[in-house]
Design brief:
Layout lengths: L2 E4 L4 H5 L4 E5 L10 E6 L7 E15 H4 L3 H6 L5 H11 L9 E9 L12 H14 L3 H14 L4 H13 L3 H14 L4 H13 L3 H14 L4 H13 L3 H15 L3 H13 L3 H14 L8 H13 L3 H14 L4 H13 L3 H14 L4 H11 L3
Parallel strand pairs: 1-3
Antiparallel strand pairs: 2-5, 3-4, 4-5
Helix pairs in contact: 5-6, 6-7, 7-8, 7-9, 8-9, 9-10, 9-11, 10-11, 11-12, 12-13, 13-14, 13-15, 14-15, 15-16, 16-17, 17-18, 17-19, 18-19
Length: about 375
């Protein structure tokens, strides 16, 4: 029973894109017609069977013929032959010589109904891998897995929604909307999918259409926090500030312990010129945070800007210092801090802040000219 092990990162294997592999020849080499039992991570606790296959073609070659063969390496998904040989040396413990025999094994997957060994839930296996890749931010790979899972079950609403989310993160908003629409054909009242479609429309620039879809979700469940949050944001993008504020005020009653709600309300009030009220919202956002990791540095920076407009420079400086403690290399935060320090007459400290900007962005004109202005006072 020939067994092949693949890395769980070898996504092309389960999507069907890859139908061959290169392995060191066994004492009894593989031949056409052999049945393969293929696994992910065979020698780890994450071991998982992925498919059975028939060997359809075999090409024999030596290790010497693999060295320097960049074309073959790229066909196998490696950057070049050096990358491929590095993987082989790791796979075989570095025990390789020029005369070692290798095989290029071409295979064809066997339908699960024809498997001789233990059967698996193929869709569940692929979906799980897709979710792991999605959660780790590898959206280019996860979209391939979601596609493979959807080929097994094109009407799975969960998969259609997840693929839509995945495509949105890749900036493929119209493709994402197509996935959401397929899911909504089956569940037209699913507020989460409606909301995701509204977000995709918003990101694609179709703000009015986004509001129409958001209206549908709102009509189905007017007290849903996630629907209200994005409804408020969409109204804000349309310039309907009063309507957006009413939505955020309603949301605060429902989800008042969520710092993002208070941050969004503070941002809106800042844009409306209601600076004192904005600061109250930002303060509340800080208050309800369980720890610093939940604090929104951009919101704290905006709070600082609001304090500047109110003439409360010491409070503004506190905000910028807090924002920088969360994102120490953020150029905008460092610039803002430098400006406040200038206004407070602390020119040496201001120069230090501007130098930090110039260290990361040598062509930053604002930092350069503000630093020059500070030097005139020393």
């Amino acid at each position: 029973m020939p067994i092949l092990s693949f890395s769980s990162n070898d996504i092309d294997v389960i999507t069907g894109k890859k139908t061959r592999t290169i392995r060191k020849a066994w004492k009894t080499p593989l031949k056409v017609g052999d049945r393969l039992y293929c696994y992910w991570n065979l020698v780890s606790k994450e071991k998982m069977k992925i498919f059975e296959a028939f060997v359809t073609r075999i090409e024999d070659l030596s290790f010497e013929e693999l060295e320097g063969n960049d074309e073959l390496a790229r066909q196998e998904g490696f950057k070049d032959s050096k990358d491929m040989l590095k993987e082989f040396k790791k796979m075989y413990g570095g025990r390789l010589s020029p005369l070692d025999k290798f095989q290029i094994i071409h295979f064809e997957k066997i339908d699960i109904s024809q498997w001789k060994g233990d059967k698996i839930d193929e869709k569940a296996m692929i979906s799980k891998r897709a979710d792991i890749l999605f959660d780790s931010g590898k959206f280019d790979k996860s979209t391939m897995c979601y596609d493979a899972a959807l080929r097994l079950d094109p009407n799975d609403i969960y998969l259609l929604n997840k693929q839509g989310d995945n495509l949105s993160r890749l900036g493929r908003f119209m493709d994402a909307i197509e996935c959401y629409d397929k899911a909504l054909d089956m569940e037209p009242d699913n507020i989460y999918i409606l909301n995701n479609k509204a977000i995709a429309l918003l990101n694609s620039g179709n703000i009015n259409k986004a509001l129409k879809v958001s209206n549908l979700a709102y009509n189905y469940r007017p007290s849903s926090p996630i629907v209200l949050y994005w409804r408020g944001f969409i109204l804000e993008m349309l310039g309907r500030y009063d309507d957006a504020l009413r939505v955020y005020d309603k949301l605060i009653v429902i989800d008042g312990e969520n710092p993002e709600v208070w941050n969004s309300r503070g941002n809106l009030l800042t844009d409306m010129g209601m600076l004192a009220e904005a600061i109250e919202s930002f303060d509340k956002a800080v208050e309800v945070c369980l720890d610093d990791s939940e604090m929104d540095a951009a919101a704290i920076n905006r709070m600082g800007n609001a304090y500047i407009d109110l003439g409360k420079l010491d409070k503004a400086l506190e905000c910028f210092n807090k924002a920088i403690s969360l994102e120490q290399y953020n150029i905008d935060f460092l610039l803002n801090k430098g400006v406040v320090l200038m206004e407070l007459g602390k020119f040496e400290e201001a120069i230090d802040s501007f130098n930090k900007v110039l260290l990361r962005s040598p062509d930053n004109e604002d930092a350069f000219f503000l630093k020059e202005e500070c030097l005139e006072y020393l």
